[in-house]
Design goal:
Layout (H helix, E strand, L loop, with lengths): L6 E5 L4 H12 L3 E6 L2 H13 L3 E6 L5 H15 L4 E4 L14 H29 L2 E6 L2 H5 L5 H21 L4 E8 L5 H4 L3 H10 L8 H12 L10 E4 L9
Parallel strand pairs: 1-2, 1-4, 2-3, 4-5, 5-6, 6-7
Length: 249
């Protein structure tokens, strides 16, 4: 098993990519903390992992709140004694074009997608530094690389995640801690389900591999960066997009 005896936190673990990642990590031998704002969905995923013979702990977390994130990290170390992997996967959207975007929409997305990733990284870094090992994996997006119409707030957060990830890779390397990012393309999740069908049809047409990603497609990329197979990889952004670079509207 590729994550045997490792302890992993997955934020946004109650559904979509986070759920797929938590379950895959557990199948690969990790003890998994399923962290989510929705306590019910986190508990459901953790229960399913336990029913399948894995080890999991459900934790309610608001990644935009420092005290909540610190409590998540404490719950993890109290339960498992260490943290080997952080997958900062939690994220939201509040899309609209620039001249119609409210300050509230901007702040809400920034607080979860950018500040939340920073708070989670800041909280686990001391644990990993003291261990002399760890893998931090942050959820970016191809939107953070190429931009996308109606998503200036989301694009700003995902571009910021890339910049933070590269910075952390330099800051933490001497302590044996790696930091990388995944940049998914359009993925078949509850978040993307809200996109108009005609838009998703255009995305499929413009994706060289001809389909949306599945949550498992992204989860397996997380798995690689969480495992020792990627032990000489840090500061990188792995695009998992089926070849899609941008949608031409």
């Amino acid at each position: 098993m590729r994550l045997k005896d490792k302890v992993a936190i997955v934020t946004g673990g109650g559904q979509g990519i986070g759920e797929a990642t938590a379950k895959l990590f557990a199948r690969e031998g990790a003890k998994v903390v399923v962290a989510d704002m929705n306590e019910e969905t986190a508990g459901k995923v953790a229960g399913e992992i336990q029913s399948s013979g894995g080890e999991a702990l459900a934790v309610k977390v608001n990644v935009a709140d420092a005290a909540s994130v610190d409590a998540m990290v404490k719950a993890t170390t109290d339960w498992a004694g260490r943290i080997d992997v952080l997958v900062s996967n939690a994220g939201i959207t509040a899309d609209t074009v620039l001249h119609k975007m409210s300050e509230e929409q901007w702040d809400r997305v920034i607080n979860v997608n950018l500040k939340g990733v920073w708070l989670c990284g800041k909280a686990v870094a001391p644990v990993m530094r003291n261990q002399g090992s760890g893998s931090i994996i942050n959820a970016s997006s191809i939107v953070g690389v190429y931009g996308n119409m109606g998503q200036s707030n989301y694009a700003a957060t995902k571009g910021g995640v890339i910049a933070m990830t590269k910075t952390w890779a330099v800051e933490l390397a001497s302590k044996g801690v790696r930091a990388n990012a995944i940049a998914p393309g359009f993925t078949d999740t509850p978040m993307v389900a809200a996109v108009k069908p005609e838009v998703l049809d255009k995305v499929r047409q413009q994706t060289p591999l001809g389909r949306l990603a599945t949550p498992d497609d992204i989860a397996y990329a997380y798995l690689f960066l969480a495992s020792d197979e990627s032990s000489f990889i840090t500061g990188q952004v792995l695009e998992v997009s089926g070849g899609l670079m941008r949608v031409i509207w």
